[in-house]
Amino acid sequence: MLNNRKKTIGVFVCKLPEYFQRTLCGALADEAVANGYNLVVFSTFGEYDNNHDYVEGESNCLYIPNYDELDGIILCLDVFDIPGMAGKLIEQVKEKAHCPVISIRQKRDEFISVLSDDKKAIMAMVDHLIDEHNAKRIYYLSGPSYMHDIRMREDGFRERMKSRGVAFREEYIFMGNLWYNIGKEAVDYFLSLDDERPDAILCANDYMAISVCEELCDRGFRVPEDIIVTGFDDVEEARDIYPMLTTVEACPENFARCAMEIIKKAERGEKLEKQYYISTQNQYRNSCGCKEAEEAKQIFRKQFKKNQRLVHLYKQNMFMVFRMEGIRDYQGLPDLVGKFVEGNTGVSDFYICLNPDEKYELDDSRKSPYEDEMEMLLHAYYGKKMSIEVPMPQRLFKRKNLLPADEVTDRPCVFYINPLHYRKHCFGYAIISFFNNRFYAAEDFYQSFVINICTVLENIYIQNQIEQLSNDKIRLIRRDSVTHMYNPYGFHEMATQMLHDATVAGINCVFFYVRLENLQEITEIYGKKESNEILLCMKSVFEKFEQEKHVLGRLGGSDFCLLLEDKMQEEIEVLAQNFVNEVNEVNEVNISWNKEFFIEVRYGWFVKEVGTISSTDECIRSAKMKMKVGAQMQTSAAKYAFEAMKEIRQNYQKEISVTYMAEQIGISRTHLSHCFKLIYQKSIQDYITSYRMEKAQELLIHTQKKIKEIAFLVGYKDELYFSKVFARLYGMSPSKFRKTMLT
User: Fold this and answer.
1) CA 112: distance to chain centroid?
2) Is residue 679 part of a domain?
3) Domain assignment present for 163
4) Cα radius of gyration rounded to whole Å, the chain
5) Among the three residues 243, 261, 294, which one is the final residue of a domain in this structure?
6) pLDDT, average across residues 364-382
7) Which of 87, 88, 3, 75 is nearest to 42 (CA)?
8) CATH number of the domain where residue 691 is located
9) Among the listed residues 677, 659, 679, 676, the one whose alpha carbon sits nearest the alpha carbon of residue 668
10) 475: which of 63, 88, 280, 537 lies 20 to 30 Å off by Cα?
11) pLDDT one-digit tens code per residue, 610-659
């Protein structure tokens, strides 16, 4: 996955800065580096906000990696608290991964599971309370039964209580939520069960145990003198409370070593088991009475140091909150990121990678919220001092590589990745690495830092949208709503500026004025939609004559003006004739689509010479007058030629008489021939011949008809004469043409 030719292990966790996840990933990093693997941790902050859009944004984390390029996947499914996210992750892995997949602490039949013997540990804890502390009335605070490890702990408690012959009822088990807020509800329930208070309360994890301890103290109970409390997991906070918590150490390092060994076995082609178990260790401390309570001042000293650190971090956070209010573009981000890197001395590198071109919203054309090609916005790193690289322009790279190739060393790399989003807007992702590969940032601060970055990115996005809307408004003021050419106001403004620049440079300017003679008639007969299509056709015709410096405008319902620089009289005449030819091509296309009208135009031009004093309005009026007087393209000639061309296309299979066509139109044969030659630059007979041969080509390629039959179908009674005409135009016989085109 990373461009350093090292194999890569992907780890998927939620709430990375929490003790177990942080310690596990740190141990995995040590194991991976020692064995020559890259380690990439894909993390989400969890259900920080239960807003649906926020939850969807956090789920973007699952779409960052290319699963089929990972050489090992480690899942911490039990820590995902976003509804449905664990299920989405499982689906992604099952569909796309082609490597060993290891589930930590949660049994999954479709993956390899690494589990702790939680049942045995709880049984040992029950034995300890009974044997060492003479506990007879023991209650249990459990958790969600769908979690394998929690269910095993509860089963261990139930079985051991029954086997030891102490008092036990199912009512002694209360279902908790594995979090700090359950203490009051649990204590209320346990104290209501019997007249006597419990001797001990076992908890399925440390967070609930801490909550129970605090609630008991608030009610005047002493721990452990009045009621013993124990936990499970041995989180960092279990050693920072007073009294220190008796608990079970799940030992994240053991999970890491086991997972790494499984990946190495798979690489060697060895047979793998479906389940592996690691040992746990019971830590008997103050909350059960095994050790004398650590003096309060010692705990306070530890807390003081931690609080000092937190105060420093939160001061930085306040700086970021105030600073980000004024950030309206990407130039403000380096300072924000720099303060974070400086304040977290363990950070070695921090990257911001974004979807290019502000493709932040998922549409039907994109299966992933991330583009295949990403853009590195900035790179902050700490060497002898903090430095920030802001590539200009931003560096594009393949998302499957996670970073540009030159940002990855040949040594094994350890990266921690979080999605960057604001609700449903998926901006990209952030990558952080540390000098010793272990995640150092405090949970709340790092989360706040990333959220602040997302808020800044959203502010920049909104600012860009406001500017775009403002530009669109200005454009609409200056532009025609149908063609998006300059309207009279916009044309006058831009033409005036161009005239001024041309005068300074000593350059002549040409105003080429055009009018659609029959636009109103077409609108009345065929409707607004058809007339708008004609306007767009005219725009495409004009665009063929645009140059580096020009102004094109629609000055009225059917009037247009093209302003060009530095044209000689001969060039203008050529331009005029080419313009006529382009309009005729549009008319021919209309005929092929069976449209009963043609575009009639008149044009004229005015040359604004250097040294003459003329305003924009005067130049436009002069070009308009030239059009009226000169009528350079006779409307009648175009109309006569158009009628003849339509007659030819409809009756090319028959004998066509120029005299007959002239009589039908109401003009002389000579006049019709002149008009046709003027408009289409070829004689009527030549046009008939070329059109018949075009149709013959189509029949030769797309049908199996004989040459004689084709000759008849395009208006020739004599096969030999047809072949001679065909050969004269295309340099080969009809049969050879067919053979050439079909081989």
Assistant:
1) 33
2) no
3) yes
4) 41
5) 294
6) 84
7) 75
8) 1.10.10.60
9) 659
10) 537
11) 888 789 999 999 998 887 654 444 456 777 887 888 888 888 898 888 88
Q: What is the pTM of this model?
A: 0.64
Q: What is the pLDDT of residue 210?
A: 94
Q: For strands 395-398 and 386-389, give the pairing.
A: unpaired
3-state SS class at 636? helix
CA distance 77 to 86: 6
Q: What is the rounded CA–CA span in Å between residue 512 and residue 538?
A: 14
The reported pLDDT for the residue numbered 42 is 96
Whether 348 contacts 381, CB under 8 Å: yes
The residue-averaged pLDDT of 220-246 equals 91
Residue 478 maps to a domain: no
CA dihedral 716, 718, 722, 723 (to 10 degrees): 160
E-only strand ranges, 299-371? 347-354
- pLDDT for 632 equals 41
Confidence of residue 365 (pLDDT cuts 50, 70, 90): low
> Cα angle at 49 between 240 and 11, to 5 degrees?
65
Structure tokens at 604: 């004229």
For residues 164 and 274, membership in a common domain is answered with: yes
Integer Cα distance of 262 and 32 in angstroms = 12
Q: Strand 425-434 and strand 414-422: pairing? A: antiparallel
Distance CA 64, CA 67 (A): 9
Nearest residue to 85 via CA among 355, 431, 433, 419: 419
- Mean pLDDT, to the nearest integer, of 383-407? 83
Q: Are residues 212 and 272 in the same domain?
A: yes
Tokens 């008319």, residue located: 587
Percent of the chain's residues with pLDDT above 70: 90
Task: Please compute the mean of the pLDDT values over residues 243-270 and round it to a whole number.
Answer: 93
Residue 298, token pair as written in the block: 């010692």
CATH number at residue 174: 3.40.50.2300
Determine the pLDDT at residue 302: 56
Predicted confidence at residue 205, as pLDDT, reads 93
Query: How much of the chain is helix, strand and coil, in % rounded to 5?
Result: 50, 15, 30
Fill in the DSSP letter of residue 610.
T
The span from the CA of 624 to the CA of 603, in Å, is: 8
Helix (H) or strand (E) run with residue 73 in it? strand 72-75
The two beta strands, 509-516 and 601-608, are antiparallel
615 within some domain: yes
- The token pair at 499 is 């005239």
pLDDT tens digits, one per residue of 71-98? 999 999 988 888 889 999 999 999 999 9
Q: Which domain holds residue 719?
A: 686-742
How many residues are present in the chain? 743
Q: Is the dihedral of CA 693, 694, 695, 699 positive or negative?
A: positive
For the domain that residue 450 is a member of, what is the CATH number? 3.30.450
Same domain, 42 and 165: no
414 pLDDT band (50/70/90 cuts)? very high
SS3 at position 116: strand
Q: What pLDDT score was predicted for residue 132?
A: 95
Helix (H) or strand (E) holding 125: helix 118-133
Position with higher pLDDT, 146 vs 68: 68
Any idea what the CATH number is for the domain that residue 622 is in?
A: 3.30.70.270
Say what the pLDDT of residue 25 is: 94
Do residues 42 and 11 make contact, with C-beta atoms less than 8 angstroms apart?
Answer: yes
Question: How much is the mean pLDDT over the chain?
Answer: 86
Buried b (16+ CB within 10 A) or exposed e, 65-79: bbbebbbbbbbbbbb
Same domain, 578 and 616: yes
Q: Are residues 306 and 287 in the same domain?
A: no
Residues 330 and 446 in one domain: yes
Domain termination site, one of 294, 328, 349:
294
**Residues 202, 130 within the same domain:** yes
* Location of structure tokens 């209360």: 174
Sheet arrangement for strand 601-608: 550-554, 559-565, 509-516, 601-608
Q: How many Å from the N-terminal Cα to the C-terminal Cα in the chain?
A: 46
Q: Are residues 288 and 305 in the same domain?
A: no
Concatenated DSSP letters for 101-121? EEEESS--TTSEEEEE-HHHH
